[in-house]
Amino acid sequence: RWVFVITPTHRRFTQRLDLVRLGNTLGHVDNVYWVLVEDSARRSHKVDRWLNASMVQHWAHLWRPTRGRWQVRGAQQRNHGIAQLRQMINEETDQALRKAYQDGVVYFADDDNAYDVALFDQIRQVRSLGAWPVGLCGGHFVQRCIVDPGTGKIVDYIAWNARNRKFPIDMAGFGAHVRHFLSPDSPEDVPMFNVSSMSGQLESDFIDGFGIPLAEIEPLGDNCTKVNVWHVRTAVENFTRYSFDELFDV
Ligand code: UGA
Ligand code: MN
C-alpha cells in the first residue's frame, strides 16, 4: 500500500539538517510518496536540489505561503498538499497505479520529527483512521491512547490538554485512508485544516472532520504501546557571525 507523507517545511538554519534526516528515513521505505510543501511564495532551488539528491523515489515539490494567521504552523501547506494529492491521484492515467493510490494512507509528517521506519508499516495497517503513540510530545514522555483490553477500543487518552480536546491526538499520531480525501464529490467536503482553529485545537478539529467517533479510531502500534515517532526540536546555537544568505548548503 502507498503511504502519502505530507510535510510542511519552512526556511531556517536547521532546514536542511531536518530534511536530510527525514529524507534518509523515507528513502528506506518502499511505496512512499513524499509531498513536501514549502511555506514560501516561490519554489526554492535549494529544496529542489535536496529532494533530487535524496534517496526518496516518489515525491512532489509544492509551495504555498502562509497568509493571515501564521499561528497555525503548516496548516495552509498541508491543505495545499491535500488538494494537490487529490488532483494527482484523480488525474493518474495508469489505471493500475491509480487503483493502488486509491487504497493509500495519508500521514502528516512534520519535517523536524524523528521516525522509525517501522512506523510506515504501522501506517499501512490503517483501514479508515488509525492512531498511535508519539514520544516526547506535549510535556509527556509518551502521548498515547488507552485501549480497553476487552473491547480493543480506545477509551481514553494520555496527552496534553486531553480534557479540553475532543481528539487529543498529535499531528504525528494519526493516519487516514486516502478515500476520505478523494471520495467527496465537492472539494468543500474534503477534510481540511482550519486556519482559524483555536490554539492547540488544530489536529482535534481536523480529525473531527472525518466524522468518526473516538471509540472507532483504530489503535495501532501494538495497541498504542509502541513508540515509532518522536517530537524533536533541533537546537541551534545563536549564530552571530553568519547571516542566512552566507550559508550555502549547510
Ligand atoms: C506542533 C505540532 O506537532 C505541529 O504538527 C503543529 O503544526 C504545530 O505544533 C502547531 O500547530 O503550531 P511544533 O514542533 O510546535 O509542532 O512546530 P514546528 O515543528 O515548528 O512546525 C510544524 C511543521 O510546520 C513543521 O514541518 C514546520 O516546518 C512547519 N512550519 C513551521 C511551517 O511550514 N511554517 C512555519 O512558519 C513554521
Ligand atoms: Mn516540531
**What is the global morphology?**
globular
Sheet bearing the most strands, described? 7 strands, mixed
Helix count?
A: 8
Rg computed from alpha carbons, rounded to a whole number of angstroms: 18 Å
Overall mean pLDDT: 94
User: CATH superfamily, called what?
Assistant: Spore Coat Polysaccharide Biosynthesis Protein SpsA, Chain A
Bound molecules: uridine-5'-diphosphate-glucuronic acid, manganese (II) ion
Strand content: 15-25%
CATH architecture, please?
Answer: Alpha-Beta Complex
Question: How many domain modules?
Answer: 1
The CATH class label is Alpha Beta
Termini distance?
A: 35 Å
Q: For this entry, what is the oligomeric state of its chains?
A: single chain
Give structural notes.
By secondary structure, this protein is α/β, with parallel strands linked by helices. The chain has a single domain, classed as Alpha-Beta Complex (Spore Coat Polysaccharide Biosynthesis Protein SpsA, Chain A), CATH 3.90.550. Helices cover 26% and strands 22% of the residues. The protein has eight helices and twelve strands. Keywords: Glycoprotein, Manganese, Membrane, Metal-binding, Signal-anchor, Transferase, Transmembrane, Transmembrane helix. Its main location: membrane. The active site is at residue 203. It is a single-pass type II membrane protein.
